[in-house]
Structure formats: structure tokens, C-alpha cells
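User: Let's play a game. I give you a shape written as C-alpha cells, and you guess the letters that built it. Ready? Here's round one.
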């Protein structure tokens, strides 16, 4: 097997397994949208804004207390599993879990102390602090999913996600109806993390990862995590401070509209995140071909997401109306978030590759350059331009981060084929422009944008048959589908030969 074929097979494995992880992420995103639609109909959009702030605060504090160990774990678990060593993986995981649990406990005590003393932080009330402390305590259980992802046990991740979301719906909706406040919605998320963690621990035991502690290995993971610690905090700040800033400077209803718009965009971006989450441990376990595999992953990630992003860019108002959001600024916000997200896909690919090489300083610089401008601009533009200001801050950070990451990729001799990237973005955009001009209905326009984009990707050799086969090779019933694909390919080839 040639180097290209080996790389394509490996990327096919990553993408194939990431489909299940994306199914998990999209389950979270879509169930979240339905969850907010139901709860906002019960108690108004204000409930979305307040609950999202309590979640955002908990996740920001979790990232701070976590010392970047989620990414550090992915790297070293990937290495351990490439060595087929469950004991080594167990020591990395459980040692880190215990240490971070102890740090989380200290943060939780501080939050509860502030709440009990009736201390507010801006518009963040003692009740929000108290609920955030409970969310943070249960969020620690998310670490179990990191191990399953690193082991490429993505079907188990999907099962955990479906079960957790089911419980979230039951608990959140019932308690909101009973309590008539946002606290019921937040308790639904707490139930979600409890179920996710309980199933995660069960699955971890089922694959033979039993508790085993090693102080040395926890230090190794924390050391690796610290390189990604500040970028992780700033990245989450870049995502959640927009919501928190709007909550502080405007009102819960506008915050809720922005949060829903960003959730829709993140539903698509989570496909790329799913791919990169699996790419990191795989690249970390490779001794060569990292750059070749990394670019193939970038190409596939863009090809899978850009047509969807362009569809969102073309029809933001119609999609938002389906969610009962008629605010005139929200479609503009969504389009800005789409632009920033497409740019982020490229810089994140470079960041993952640098981290897999152990180039932690480069990873730190990319993360800082992308998210620090966002954090600063949120508090400059949001008071002036509200939701549009928050979205502009996100885009500005994305563009600045891309510029820095491209310099780093050049110095590392990671040569991205920019003509291919350009084609992937321009093809669906060129299709969407006349559709926008002629005001084509949503359903017909969606079929044209998505269908024609992928036809042209194949026609222009951005995607080839072998790559498509690699993509679907890990899916159920893939053998039958692959057989049909090759039969069609053979028929086309014979027809071409007959012409000559």
C-alpha cells in the first residue's frame, strides 16, 4: 500500500468513526434547540439567556480549573492506545481525573461561599453562582467521554449522549413547568452530565480501564495540558463571554436569541470538532505522515461543512423563523458567525497538528492570537453594537488567528494546498449567490446548494471515489454501499472507453 493509500485509509478511519461522534454532537445541538424552543414557549426567551449564562460560567471555570488536561489526556491516551496498553491509559486517565476533581472542589467551595453571602458579580446573581457550582461539579464527569473518544469508542459516546439528553428533557421540562423559572432548565443540564458520566464510567470499565493511579503520569498530562491551558480558557471565553457580555449589557431575551443563533452555527462546526477530537490522538500515535494525514483531514472537514455553512449563510432569516426568532439583527449575527467559523476550521487544523508534534508554544500562540482579540473586543463592541458587536468580535479573532497560524504552518513546513481550500469554499458560495438573487425557496435552494456542491467537488477532483469509500468504510452497511459505488464507477469507466 502506498503512502497516499495508507494516509487515505487512516483518514477514512478517523472520519468514519467521527460520524458517530458527530451524531453525538448533533444530538446535543438539535436536542438543545428543541429544548430551548419548548422551554421558551413555557417561560419566554428570557429563560434561555439566564440558563446559558449559568452554563457558560460553569464551563469557563471548568476550563480554568482543568489546566488544559482534556487536550493533554487526548494526546497521551492516543499514545497509550497506539501501544495497546490499557494499564498505561488507565494510569493517565484516573490519575488526572482525581487531581482535577480535587481542584474543581476548591472552585465549587468558592462559588457556594459567594452565593451564601449574597454576593453578585455584575448581573450574575447568587442564584446563578449556586447553580453554576452544581453544573461544574457534574461537568467533571465529562472526562469519561474523553477516554472513550481517544479509544475511538464513538458508538458508546453516542449511546451515552442519547440517554443523557432523554433524561435532560424529562427533568428540565417537568421542573420548569413546576418551578416556573430558569432553574428547572438548568437542573435538566445537571441531570444530563450525571447520566453522561454514569454511562461513561460503565463503558470505561467494560473496555478494561480500571482505576490505577500514577502521580508521575498525572504530572505528564498536566504539563502537556498547561501548553493548551490558556488557549482553552481564552477559546471558551471567546465562545461564552459574548453571551455573558450581552447578558450584562443588554437583557436576557436578546442574550437568548444570540445564544440560539450561535448554537445553530456550532451544530455545523461540531462536525469539524468531532473530526479533530479523533485526529489529535491518532496523529499523536503516528511516527510519520502526520502532515499528509492532517491536510487530508482539513480537506474532508471543509468539504463536509462548508456547503452547510453556505446554506446557513443564504437562509438565516428563514431558519430562525422556524425557531420563532424574528429579531432583525439575528440573521446578520448568524452570517458573521458563519464567516468566523469557516476561518476557524483552518486555524484549528494547524493547531491540532502542532500539538500532535508536541509543539506546545506554537499551539499556545495560535490559541492566544485567535481568542484574545475576541475577549477584548466583546467588552468594546458589545455595549455599542450589542449582538452584532459580539459577532464581529468573534470574526475578528478568527481572522487574526488564521493569519498567525498560517505563519506557524509555513515555518513548520506544513504546506496547505490553498487552491483546493479556495475551491471548496468558492464552489458552494458561487451556487448560493444566484439562489439568493432569485429568492429561491428554502427547500429547493437547500437541495441545489448541497447537491450541486458535492457533484462539483467530485467533478473538479476535490473529492475522488477512493476518498469517498474511505469516508464511509466505518459506517453500518458500508460494504453494500461501497459495492454499488464501484459498480457505478466501472460503468462510467467502460462508457468512457467505448467513446474511444
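Assistant: Ready! My guess for every position:
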Amino acid at each position: 500500500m502506498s503512502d497516499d493509500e495508507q494516509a487515505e485509509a487512516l483518514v477514512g478511519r478517523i472520519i468514519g468513526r467521527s460520524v458517530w461522534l458527530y451524531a453525538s454532537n448533533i444530538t446535543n445541538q438539535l436536542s438543545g434547540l428543541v429544548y430551548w424552543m419548548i422551554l421558551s414557549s413555557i417561560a419566554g426567551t428570557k429563560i434561555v439567556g439566564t440558563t446559558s449564562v449559568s452554563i457558560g460560567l460553569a464551563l469557563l471555570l471548568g476550563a480554568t480549573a482543568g489546566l488544559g488536561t482534556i487536550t493533554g489526556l487526548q494526546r497521551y491516551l492516543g499514545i497509550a492506545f497506539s501501544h495497546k496498553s490499557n494499564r498505561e491509559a488507565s494510569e493517565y486517565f484516573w490519575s488526572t481525573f482525581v487531581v482535577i476533581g480535587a481542584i474543581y472542589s476548591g472552585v465549587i467551595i468558592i462559588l457556594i461561599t459567594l452565593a451564601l453571602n449574597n454576593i453578585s458579580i455584575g448581573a450574575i446573581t447568587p442564584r446563578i453562582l449556586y447553580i453554576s457550582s452544581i453544573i461544574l461539579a457534574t461537568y467533571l464527569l465529562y472526562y469519561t467521554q474523553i477516554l472513550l473518544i481517544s479509544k475511538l469508542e464513538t458508538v458508546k459516546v453516542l449511546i451515552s449522549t442519547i440517554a443523557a439528553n432523554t433524561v435532560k428533557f424529562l427533568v428540565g421540562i417537568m421542573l420548569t413547568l413546576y418551578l416556573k423559572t430558569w432553574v428547572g432548565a438548568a437542573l435538566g443540564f445537571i441531570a444530563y452530565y450525571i447520566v453522561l458520566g454514569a454511562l461513561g464510567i460503565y463503558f470505561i470499565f467494560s473496555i478494561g480501564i480500571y482505576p490505577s493511579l500514577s502521580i508521575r503520569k498525572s504530572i505528564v498530562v498536566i504539563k502537556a495540558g498547561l501548553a493548551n491551558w490558556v488557549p482553552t480558557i481564552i477559546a471558551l471565553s471567546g465562545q461564552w463571554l459574548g453571551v455573558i457580555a450581552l447578558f450584562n449589557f443588554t437583557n436576557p431575551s436578546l442574550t437568548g436569541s444570540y445564544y440560539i443563533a450561535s448554537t445553530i452555527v456550532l451544530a455545523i462546526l461540531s462536525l469539524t470538532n468531532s473530526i479533530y477530537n479523533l485526529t489529535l490522538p491518532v496523529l499523536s500515535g503516528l511516527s510519520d505522515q502526520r502532515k499528509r494525514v492532517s491536510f487530508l483531514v482539513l480537506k474532508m472537514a471543509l468539504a463536509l461543512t462548508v456547503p452547510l455553512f453556505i446554506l446557513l449563510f443564504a437562509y438565516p432569516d428563514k431558519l430562525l423563523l422556524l425557531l420563532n426568532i424574528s429579531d432583525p439583527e439575528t440573521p446578520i449575527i448568524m452570517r458573521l458567525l458563519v464567516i468566523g467559523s469557516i476561518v476557524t476550521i483552518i486555524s484549528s487544523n494547524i493547531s491540532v497538528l502542532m500539538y500532535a508534534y508536541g509543539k506546545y508554544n506554537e499551539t499556545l500562540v495560535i490559541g492566544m492570537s485567535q481568542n484574545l482579540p475576541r475577549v477584548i473586543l466583546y467588552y468594546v463592541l458589545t455595549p455599542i453594537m450589542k449582538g452584532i458587536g459580539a459577532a464581529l468580535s468573534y470574526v475578528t479573532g478568527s481572522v487574526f488567528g488564521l493569519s498567525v497560524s498560517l505563519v506557524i504552518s509555513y515555518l513548520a513546513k506544513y504546506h496547505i494546498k490553498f487552491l483546493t481550500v479556495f475551491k471548496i469554499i468558492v464552489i458552494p458560495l458561487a451556487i448560493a449567490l444566484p439562489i439568493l438573487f432569485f429568492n429561491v425557496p428554502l427547500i429547493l435552494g437547500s437541495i441545489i446548494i448541497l447537491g450541486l456542491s458535492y457533484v462539483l467537488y467530485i467533478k473538479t477532483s476535490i473529492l475522488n471515489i477512493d476518498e469517498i469509500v474511505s469516508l464511509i468504510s466505518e459506517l453500518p452497511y458500508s460494504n453494500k454501499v461501497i459495492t454499488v459505488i464501484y459498480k457505478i464507477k466501472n460503468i462510467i469507466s467502460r462508457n468512457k472507453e467505448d467513446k474511444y
